[in-house]
Amino acid sequence: MFELTRLTTAAADFTQRLDQLLAWESVADARVQQVVDTIIADVRCNGDVALCDYTARFDGWTPENAAALELPQSRWTAALAAIPADQRTALETAAARIRAYAEHQRLASWAYTDTDGTLLGQQVTPLDRVGLYVPGGKAAYPSSVLMNAIPAKVAGVAELIMVVPTPNGEVNSLVLAAAAIAGIDRAFAIGGAQAIAALAYGTERVPAVDKIVGPGNSYVATAKRAVFGQVGIDMIAGPSEILIICDGQTNPDWIAMDLFSQAEHDEDAQALLIAWDDNYLDQVAASIERLLPQMERRSIIEPALQRRGGFILARDLDEAISIANHIAAEHLELSVDNPQAVAARIRHAGAIFMGRHTPEALGDYCAGANHVLPTSRTARFSSPLGVYDFQKRSSLIMASPNSAAQLAPIASVLARGEGLTAHAQSAEYRG
Amino acid sequence: MFELTRLTTAAADFTQRLDQLLAWESVADARVQQVVDTIIADVRCNGDVALCDYTARFDGWTPENAAALELPQSRWTAALAAIPADQRTALETAAARIRAYAEHQRLASWAYTDTDGTLLGQQVTPLDRVGLYVPGGKAAYPSSVLMNAIPAKVAGVAELIMVVPTPNGEVNSLVLAAAAIAGIDRAFAIGGAQAIAALAYGTERVPAVDKIVGPGNSYVATAKRAVFGQVGIDMIAGPSEILIICDGQTNPDWIAMDLFSQAEHDEDAQALLIAWDDNYLDQVAASIERLLPQMERRSIIEPALQRRGGFILARDLDEAISIANHIAAEHLELSVDNPQAVAARIRHAGAIFMGRHTPEALGDYCAGANHVLPTSRTARFSSPLGVYDFQKRSSLIMASPNSAAQLAPIASVLARGEGLTAHAQSAEYRG
């Protein structure tokens, strides 16, 4: 019989065993690092020639010239026109919902004038140009194109550049259709560390961007880390995770399927369930046992659940909440009565799915909130991808002659206390 | 005669020469990295014993026991009571202004229910516990304690832990007084990579935090990079910079002193002036020539100006603005008529100081906006330190049975398009 790890909070070593189950250290691979460093140096030095070369070597097709690296807009328009109507409608509906949610996140500039007459404020501006990495091949997710691109466009980013590898010259038509719907400005058929280098430093053909977002394999992630500082990057994501808190009143088949939906991503994905009724955990275990053999992606789900899945038996809801705050899960389902009251007590989670009718899968695709979320307990200090990731703030300060006279003596005393006398004199001139 | 680099936009190689002047690559030092890795591993393994050991080795005093690493609150209170009245008033006034500005930044949670009945929102929560690194010795800046600590407390961070090395057991009393005013919760007399390791992983005595902020030397910066992911970190700052746009109507002595105030930080600091009147640049050069010999920190100011300082002669204000947007300076002074109209055209800058009566020094100490700002052109994609760095957001999603029935078919089509059939079935159960 298939057996998930079971932990009980009553055990003396519970916290230790939980932390072992959660543990994830992304191993920095020295060989990958070396390859990536070489590729970045090559692209910085040789530009488009290097891009064509790596594309021939890694993607299995040889661009005729640098112009052939660009996917013209006509390709996306054609892809959008060619996909089945139900897929087009689904993409468009999801895009509209993601856009509506993003509109709520947009920050506005503000300013105030204090009683002395000093104007203080914050001017909010979009990034000029953003690069979006989209993986090619089997892990090509059109939903990720929507989730990464739409907040950038809502922020007002003037130019959004997509890069997507096209193994053997083939490009996923759903990805292109999603790019058309999301409002991508230009697209290039490049991938891997070479695409990240091109976006960070620019080539003759590929314009340099200010920030790079989007998921990728270990070469892409290592390259993003390497160019950070030259450009901004989003998070380097760890494996995906779900934590479900259930009061035992939800159909156990539903919970089993929610756990599967996480586990089917890859063998490192983590699916956890907390309940305070041992009998309910048995029911979910029975559902897993029965449903697993029917799952198309069983060969991924089963090892994922075996390696990193788990059932946690808590004393009660209060203890379940406390454990959820420790875990700080990427996805947290509250499959309970009155989920809003429980959500208000959650301090750390990427996204909170409330109630029995809100499986993570709805949020992954079309509820509207972003599916790019902090993993590996980083929800303790970071947030979902959003419009704010594509806006930045400049402080605004304007003293009047009167307020400068008020502020100068204070600045002078503090500057002299720090031994910075040019600062002091600069202030005193206006005093 | 003292000569600054002069560039003119009329020169064919202007952009190239400007980029050479701006260029700054922080060199990753392999030896520092190795030392830091060893220290982090040691602190993770040996906790307080390692902290006492490194303190004895690097800071020149031997803690009697682990308890001696903590600076009790009575020390800060005593320091605050002991400093001169004008310094105390200046610190308290600055703190009140920094707090007032920060209050404007606090994000609030929001939620809305769409026409289908799906609730969507964003729950904003503070970080639980934050570590603040404060350098010891000569670069001990009480103003930095205020600038880093106050936004965290305004955000609602429950526990703020300060670490500060105390070379030979000596601690800067202004730093302790600032800690008392800023509302630090606990403080430890530790520094270097060992302090960063202790904050990231915790020891018996030092609690593990969720994010580490504050400036430090190359060991501290390298350690922060190494623990990123385990905890959040603020930016790794490059050398400080100022860019002044002046219409030639400001007293040239004032502009010279503003350039000095940047250059006195360290020899890598960058001070640039753009004008469109060659004669005015000559006047500022004459002011520099005359004032420089009187400056206490001449030995730092002079090499900084010589190595990385510069005058830029533009054609007009429009071109000056365009150059400023390319440079994306940490500090931008607009010493011009109608500075607000100019500020509205600035897309990239850390902080904008508007008008002839607003030198950077006022903002560094007491205007209210934060002095922790993006350097080295990173204002293209990042923002001043603020309350938002100590808050995070969890997405909220709650479908009703009705809205789940609307959303499920969309999610199902998209999930099947991506080959994720457990996602599809999880959605369909609620359809």
TrEMBL record, chains A, B:
Its EC number is 1.1.1.23. It catalyses: L-histidinol + 2 NAD(+) + H2O = L-histidine + 2 NADH + 3 H(+). Keywords: Amino-acid biosynthesis, Histidine biosynthesis, Metal-binding, NAD, Oxidoreductase, Zinc. GO terms for cellular component: cytosol. The active site is at E330 (proton acceptor), H331 (proton acceptor). The keyword Zinc applies. Its cofactor is Zn(2+). Catalyzes the sequential NAD-dependent oxidations of L-histidinol to L-histidinaldehyde and then to L-histidine. HAMAP family: HisD. NCBIfam families: hisD (TIGR00069). This is Histidinol dehydrogenase.
